[in-house]
Design goal:
The complex is a heterodimer of chains A (447) and B (91).
Chain A (H helix, E strand, L loop, with lengths): L3 E5 L3 H12 L3 E5 L14 H7 L10 E4 L2 E7 L7 E6 L9 E5 L3 E4 L3 E3 L12 E3 H11 L6 E6 L4 H10 L3 E7 L3 H9 L9 H16 L4 E3 L1 E7 L6 E6 L12 E4 L2 E5 L2 E3 L2 H6 L3 E2 L2 E2 L12 E3 L9 H15 L8 H20 L15 E3 L4 E2 H9 L4 H8 L12 H7 L30
Parallel strand pairs in A: 1-2, 1-7, 2-3, 7-20, 9-16, 10-11, 10-16, 11-12
Antiparallel strand pairs in A: 4-5, 5-6, 8-17, 13-14, 14-15, 18-19, 21-22
Chain B lengths: L7 E5 L2 E5 L5 H7 L6 E2 L5 E2 L12 E4 L2 E5 L10 E4 L8
Parallel strand pairs in B: 1-7
Antiparallel strand pairs in B: 1-2, 3-4, 5-6, 5-7
Classes of the chains: A alpha/beta (447), B mainly beta (91).
The complex binds flavin-adenine dinucleotide and FE2/S2 (inorganic) cluster.
């Protein structure tokens, strides 16, 4: 019998996995909640997508491509990979969607990541968006999120976002990288041989930098947005010089008039499905072996859920995962594996070059909202933590993390402020008593 | 579709707004200069935040169906969008 491989997520990783699984001889079902394949990286407006039909695997006879198919549950079984519960329909969140269940001989999980944004006063104002949101609106919708836009936070992702904003006609006032020039240099220039296979990624970043230079967009390091202000929407932002630990240099504040602010402080893996499948985690990502196998037999993981390393690395991981999941001869794919390993080296370097400064919570004021859904503020959280309640009680008492997004946005932040394990669903866990009232706690910077 | 309509016409709380075919509801609203359409528990205005269906800040009611993420849903010609207050016990 032909093996059946179900691939969840059709970004670079999932597309790589589906292609390799078919090549290994398997039958594939590739599904994504979005109505286009490509994930976050290959975004394009629907007319361009229809005209180009960019992904050959989606047209393959051996690959059943299901757009608009969201996986809402994975049902574990005594043996074999979990069953995949899907809701499918033409319209996102629409009526008339159908439920179905898929059985597979192997599963590849490739659900990607989303922006992590640290809170600051005013971040809930309309017009303050994640860098990813600005990117999606620009690349997929040809819409600029604002006319006078500032891009701020940390990481190489700031560059493509600013470039896309220029392309759709926004006036980009600047790109603020919170990391200091020293940290960036140390992170990026150490052990340069590790980056040889990532030359493509380097060239891509260089092209974005050139685009910003042509657009006369200033790029400043060691500076960040510490407050957004406005009546009903963002009208101005306060930027400040930041030290290496992201504490504010007093007196360095400047006020800028904007109508949009795009922020990112890195990416958070979408761990719901791997956790539902029972996959072991390591340092906040899905733990995988040389073949991208997780701790659960028959379940593989690839892409940003196993580490933040960019699209080429995600694709390479997907190819290895799909090949193995599809029953391909073990040990093959030497070149792809090398690219994958270089991608992993790139990922750890990225984390080292763009750590989150441990004193960022100094930006917060007692009335700063931390949980956007429930509007739980920093002061309330601190008081609850100081009253020596356990984590569950803090959560129930303050409602932090209990709103519609189920802590997807504030989870890592709550975990850090309350000094719990940052990558598990936050205060569902017992928290340490005592010094909780005095965050931020231990250094969490990359090693 | 024999030929594409020139634009997608929707209404938002009764006010007509036009977008391009294939655009999401959120994109049409932002292009029309509208940045908020939902409210947090205290009544504070909200619009798009994550842009990819993760934060639930952008929920609207579409043709009577509640809790549709405006950043994911592509608009259809004639869609009637209503903004939804955040009442207790609802997302
Ligand atoms: C908003 C955003 C924009 C980005 N834009 C860029 C960019 O322009 N350039 C760049 O270099 N990097 C960009 N990135 C970084 C990007 O994450 C990686 O470059 C790359 O896309 C990662 O590939 P992936 O396959 O791991 O995940 P993704 O590309 O994120 O693909 C994951 C896919 O899984 C699907 N999915 C998730 N959960 C489910 C589920 N339960 N059921 C069904 N489907 C599901 C998602 O819809 C998505 O299509 C962006 C990231 C984000 C969050
Ligand atoms: S903007 Fe976050 S869900 Fe739509």
């Amino acid at each position: 019998m032909t093996r059946h491989v179900v691939v969840i997520g059709a970004g670079p990783a999932g597309l790589g996995a589906a292609t390799a699984a078919v090549r290994a001889g398997a039958r594939v079902t590739l599904l994504d909640s979005a109505d286009q394949a490509g994930g976050q990286y290959h975004r394009m407006p629907p007319d361009a997508y229809e005209a180009r039909r960019p992904f050959r695997i989606c047209e393959s006879e051996r690959c059943d491509w299901w757009p608009g198919a969201a996986v809402w549950a994975l049902e574990r079984r005594d043996s074999g990979p979990p069953r995949v519960h899907v809701v499918r329909g033409p319209d996102a969140d629409g009526d008339g969607r159908r439920r179905c269940v898929l059985r597979a001989d192997a599963l590849v999980l490739a659900p990607g990541a989303h922006d992590r944004v640290l809170p600051f006063p005013g971040w809930e104002l309309p017009g303050v968006v994640t860098a990813g949101a600005a990117q999606v609106l620009a690349k997929g919708e040809r819409v600029a999120v604002g006319g006078r836009v500032l891009v701020a936070g940390t990481g190489p992702f700031l560059l493509p976002v600013a470039a896309s904003l220029l392309d759709v006609g926004a006036h980009v006032l600047g790109v603020l990288e919170a990391g200091t020039a020293g940290a960036l240099l140390r992170g990026w220039t150490r052990r340069p041989w590790e980056l040889t296979g990532q030359a493509g990624k380097g060239a891509e970043l260089a092209a974005y930098a050139a685009r910003l230079a042509r657009g006369r967009v200033p790029y400043r390091t060691g500076r960040g947005v510490v407050e957004a202000r406005g009546d009903g929407r963002v009208e101005e932002v306060v930027t400040a010089r930041l030290r290496g630990d992201w504490s504010v240099v007093p007196g360095s504040e400047q006020v800028l008039t904007v109508d949009a602010l795009c922020v990112t402080h890195g990416f958070t893996p979408r761990l719901e499905l791997p956790v539902a499948a029972g996959c072991a985690l390591l340092d906040g990502f899905v733990a995988v072996d040389e073949d991208q196998a997780t701790s659960v037999p028959g379940v593989y993981a690839a892409g940003e859920v196993t580490g933040i390393a960019g699209a080429p690395a995600a694709r390479a991981e997907g190819v290895v995962a799909g090949w193995t999941a599809g029953g391909g001869t073990p040990g093959r794919l030497g070149a792809t594996r090398r690219r994958r390993d270089e991608g992993r080296a790139f990922a750890s370097r990225l984390a080292a070059a763009h750590p989150i400064g441990r004193r960022w919570a100094g930006w917060l004021r007692p009335d700063t909202i931390v949980c956007r859904c429930e509007e739980t503020d920093y002061g309330t959280l601190r008081d609850a933590a100081a009253s020596r309640l356990d984590a569950r009680a803090v959560r129930l008492g303050t409602r932090a993390g209990l709103g519609p997004c189920q802590a997807r946005i504030c989870g890592p932040t709550l975990a850090e402020l309350l000094d719990t394990n940052p990558h598990h669903r936050p205060i569902a866990w017992p928290i340490r008593l005592g010094e909780l009232a005095n965050p931020p706690a231990e250094p969490k910077e990359g090693t | 579709m024999p030929h594409k309509p020139p634009g997608v016409r929707i209404t938002v709380d009764g006010t007509p707004v036009t977008g391009r075919p294939g655009q999401t509801i959120a994109a049409i609203l932002i292009a029309a200069g509208r940045h908020s359409w939902r409210r947090g528990p205290s009544g504070s205005p909200r619009g798009v935040f994550c842009g990819i269906g993760v934060c639930f800040d952008c929920l609207v009611t579409v043709n009577g169906t509640r809790d549709v993420r405006a950043c994911l849903r592509r608009a259809d010609d004639g869609d009637a969008i209503t903004t939804q207050p955040r009442t207790k016990g609802t997302p």
